[in-house]
């Protein structure tokens, strides 16, 4: 195995959880693996696949790898099942299950890498849709346990603001009974898509469970071509990123070092078929 590594010392004042870890060693691994195999390899031999927090780390990766016209895996991936509810509060979800949350055929598909909010389609099944699309929406009012269909079309964020202002929040669906009540509310309304409170963050977290605000996508990326591209790769000539099929076999970058402590509890709800 051919491998190079370099130590990065970031001269940053400590303490803030939003800052990258102070020092990490970066390793270029000259072996071809798919994304999951690369992740396992990094976790077994180093710490994890790399997270790129800024342009300095990007330059560093270029400096420890050969300048060849190909791509390498980084810890970037787009988890189609990392859904969260707009309405927070653990107690609210005690005893809730998800088997009545049914995705429409071939959903979620994150079409064009642009679908991060969920609407009910045909009043019963879920579909991930572009958050900027305008649809009617369902608010939940906790005071009288009611569901309110607002027939004005709004973006998901606008709908969320509206529900938070006039009711409690965009609705969650916590039980079979709640699902039935929602179906009754929608019955006869004729709406095609209706926003509910489910959403997720694009391309977060990275493999090491941290998040980064830095992005360096190549032109027209990410595009989730054919709806099969959920892993991120790094161009060894330019440092730019593209989304691609996770089964591709590529070189990859690992790091050794501390993992940023997540001091905020992530309230992820894994909603699978
Ligand atoms: Ca979709
Ligand atoms: Ca792509």
Automatic annotation (TrEMBL):
Keywords carried by this UniProt record: Signal
Annotated signal peptide: 1-17
Superkingdom of origin: Eukaryota
Keyword match Signal: yes
Ribonucleoprotein in keyword set: no
Residue ranges of domain C-type lectin in the record: 21-140, 142-255
Protein name per its UniProtKB record: C-type lectin domain-containing protein
Origin species: Oreochromis niloticus
